[in-house]
Amino acid sequence: MPEGPEIRKAADYVEKAVVGREVLEIFFAFDHLKDYEEILKGRHILRVDTKGKAMLTRFDNGYTIYSHNQLYGKWYTRNAYNYPKTNRQLRFAIHNEKKSALLYSASDIEVLRDEEVEAHPFIAKVGPDILSEDVTKEELVERFHEKRFHRRKWTSLLLDQAFIGGIGNYLRSEILFVAGIHPELRPVDCTEEQLEKAAQASIDLMWQSYKHKGITNDLELAEKLKASGAKRYEYRHWVFNREGKACRVDGTEIIKFRAGSRRCYYCPTCQSK
Ligand SMILES: [Zn+2]
Predict the structure, then answer these.
(1) How far is the centre of ligand 1, averaged over its atoms, from the C-alpha of 239 (Å)?
(2) How far, in Å, from the CA of 161 to the mean position of ligand 1?
(3) Which homologous superfamily is 4-125 in?
């Protein structure tokens, strides 16, 4: 599943393709949205916002398209009406004179009035979005102390979109590693210093992943490994996907386990209890 950084990247591409050009045609696959095709045609798109893993395409006539890629959704931006070869089903398309932005496979698409966006069930409960809001380390630490969060395990918190929007499976393992926190712990078990590290790591890794194509490893180290012939999956992360490999810091074997039915990785010495 794409995580916040990948969704923001996709939103950047969609924005680049559609903002500043009159919409020539809108296509919705779902019958209940068909009536909106005419309403949105001929309008302009102001921008594409993201909130966690949701995308909000803002039109200039008071309408916003909410879309969530869930597991299978995928955006393509192409030259106008140039469809990719794919077995996926086209669900939503924006066409202008030059470009088409095409959303395949996603089933979670809604047309909202701007004033309805805040009350949308997902938007209303999603936590702060580091990539689209000015979220500070202090605000996150405060959040870690909140009653509704501080006695839950980090492994479940970090995947809960109500905690911080946009964090997914690889970021979960990577944030805990960089913060030096054992995955069995809860915020309440951590020192203030660990909480600060977790907050900083959440911010830094989201931004680094967004700017550097999903790389969460130390950038210099990743560059070195790449230059010496390592494949992307070998240099991309600190611990994620590295079961049985040596920790990049102290050489300990990386451990993989399941948390919330999804794989999680950690170094038992860098992240001791
Ligand atoms: Zn280690």
Answers:
(1) 9
(2) 28
(3) MutM-like, N-terminal (3.20.190.10)
